[in-house]
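tokens incoming
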């Protein structure tokens, strides 16, 4: 059975979302890095960097949230999260690296300010700089979504999931997406999915 290691309120959330999309049975171990639980010998045998999330599936062990989602999609989401055709699969790889290198860095810079900082320690300059750096990836997404409903074509795939989890950081930090109406519509459709809602419920239960 697949096991996802990592508390839900973290980048593990995006992997919970992917697992929920597939509908497969999985186990969730909410390893909490803030309590040193990612530094155990058992965990660092999977990720020597002691960061969550990580995944085990039989003899497969791995870390890096977006790579985990590609594995989950390829293994358990054929024909849905993972397209059948080579062109669609190429789009999933492309958009996943776009998320990691273009969309997530400014998104997470903003999120860190909003979540981990107090009124006193929050830096408006970091928030504004991250907003500025978000514009180029948003322009790229807007152009793509003007001609197709989802990033790899007509249907929701792991390409959407892996980018949406970065753009969602902008939503959560009150970034005004109205200059990018296609992105605004697309992220609302992504966040409206039952699997996203299921992941949100897991986070809410963890926070309670
Ligand atoms: N690029 C990694 C980042 C993983 C990461 O930074 N995880 C955070 C939680 S969201 C963590 O475990 N931090 C522990 C630490 O920095 O000590 C991924 O996407 O999985």
């Amino acid at each position: 059975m697949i096991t996802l290691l990592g508390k839900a309120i973290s980048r593990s959330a995006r992997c919970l979302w992917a697992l929920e999309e597939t509908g497969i049975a999985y186990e969730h171990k909410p390893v909490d890095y803030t309590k040193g639980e990612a530094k155990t010998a058992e965990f660092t045998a999977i990720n020597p960097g002691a960061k969550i999330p990580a995944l085990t599936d039989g003899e497969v062990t791995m870390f890096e949230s977006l790579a985990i989602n590609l594995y989950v999609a390829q293994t358990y989401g054929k024909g849905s999260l993972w397209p059948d055709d080579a062109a669609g699969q190429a789009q999933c790889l492309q958009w996943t690296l776009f998320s990691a290198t273009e969309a997530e860095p400014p998104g997470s810079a903003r999120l860190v300010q909003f979540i981990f900082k107090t009124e006193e320690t929050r830096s408006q300059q970091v928030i504004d700089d991250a907003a500025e750096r978000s514009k180029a990836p948003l322009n790229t997404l807007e152009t793509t979504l003007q001609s197709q409903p989802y990033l790899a074509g007509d249907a929701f795939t792991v390409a959407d999931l892996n980018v949406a989890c970065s753009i969602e950081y902008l939503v959560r930090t009150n970034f005004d997406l109205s200059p990018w109406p296609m992105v605004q519509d697309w992220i609302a459709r992504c966040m409206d999915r039952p699997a996203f809602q299921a992941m949100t419920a897991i986070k809410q239960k963890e926070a309670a």
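note: Residues 10-11, 33, 38, 51-53, 64-66 surround glutathione (CB under 6 Å).
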